[in-house]
# Entry
Amino acid sequence: MMWSKTSKFLVSGLALMASFGNVVSGNTILDVAKDDADLSTFVAALEIAEIERVLDCKSWFCYSLTAFAPNNSAFEALPSGLLGNLTQNPDYKNHLRDILLYHVAWGKQEASDITNGTLRTFLHEDVNTTVADGNIFINDAQVVKGDVTADNGVLHVLNQVLIPEFMTKNIIQTIEDLGHFDTLLTALNTASLTSALEGPGPFTLFAPTDSAFDKLGNSTINGLLQDVPALTDILTYHVIPGRIFTASTLRDANLTTLQGEEITVSLKGWWWFRFPVINGDVYFRGFDILASNGVIHVIEDVLTPPSMEPAGPTITDIATDTDSLSTLTAALAATGLNSTLANATFGPVTVFAPNNDAFDELGQETINSLLSNTEVLTNVLLYHVVDGELERRDLTDGNVKALNGEEIEVDRGLFGFWVRLNGDTRIRSFDNLASNGVVHIINKVLVPPSDIVLTATLTGFPTLVKALTDTNQASALQGTGPFTVFAPTEEAFDDLGRDALASLDPAVLTQILLYHVVGGEEVLADDLRSGDTYKTLEGSEITVNRECRVIVFCRFVLNDDVEFVSTDLKATNGVIHAIDKVLIPPGITL
# Structure
């Protein structure tokens, strides 16, 4: 039986046929079985396996069947625990179905028709029929009550449960019968593991096909066959103690192998179409093939223990080899973090790696400032590193803590189609796996919670920050606050004129800068109301107005003509709003 699906198709086919053709009236085999109290376990098993319709078929397609029904004593005589597993454990449901179909044959075979020979069952395995001294035997089971007739066939009662041949064979015998496992069998013999898998077990074998071994190449296979310790490690990494079934256990699990290391089973796919894979990328080709001492799952690749995997690229290697991460690479080198992330024993960690475009948004002046201040730069970079390896599937709604101690907000989005960080940062490339973690490439530099000045530095206001520093106002905005800063963009200073800015008297420049700051209050965008006024640190007021071109297209402006570019850039001591013009206090003329 090759990866056992035959019985499912057969049962489905009979159900379809039973819905067509002329219906046979009267008692079916199922009816006469229900009438016999000594067959109650047999009837219950049919219902549990959901194949009672096979013996209840009333279509002319199935008017002639033979059922061999074990009596209650026969089921009770099964090995300890087997009947309970078959009838109560959903993992064994397919196997119960196979056993029961092994008790049904095509054609109406009354006692007088049975001779020494074989009968083909619905399982596509033959049973042996023997007639001796007036007794009829089906395999080793004796017919103790024969010729119970029904309108769709005949039923014979047995004193033993018939066990299909494939379920009486151990794991080695089963894979020999299946075919396609010659290389695996050779490898097991070479490593002297054959006798172990012929033993009592139970074991679960993840069995690579010949095609799976072929992917390794002849030189690798021959090398392994010469290196018995390595071969033994690989083969025992495919064996789990106990019976592990797909129906329950193979669902996001870490399973310890006989080799000692774990394999990881996870689910891939979307919505209802989800299927298990091993170690992220090894797919199954067959499930739940039962042997007398365990269960076999067929896989399409040879598993390699993690300890035998060649060392892959480190996080620093990935950053260095990715053209779009050249600015990040320079930043890591400036802080020495490149050496830390190049250490294969460091981690595992998750790095949210800003691409070059993300750094370009900060402006070259900001980048140069960061590269010259390694303490600040280190804090920023560590805000992009999270302890543990979080692949895309592990990123769920909530917060994760970065290595600088601050939290990053994760928003998985609709059905996980996208992932945002801190509200507006998107991951552009997921799951760049390294030997010491994973890299996700993002489109913005994440700004750790900082004071007004550092936040402005990291969000693209270099001219404003320089002006604050030159006028000795930066330290004040690093104080407790709270402050609300209306921050002119680089384009706003361009419109003012760089020459005019450079020629300003420091006292005048100080007045202009303080006119952009509201002290003692954090004014968020949602707090703005038309007609509101706010007293600035310069002493004069600024006015908020609401302008509407059409009723639904409204905006707030400052002092009648200054527009907001972005709002609510949060800092630890206040908030920044970007504006498109430099505000000039009353009484100052440029």
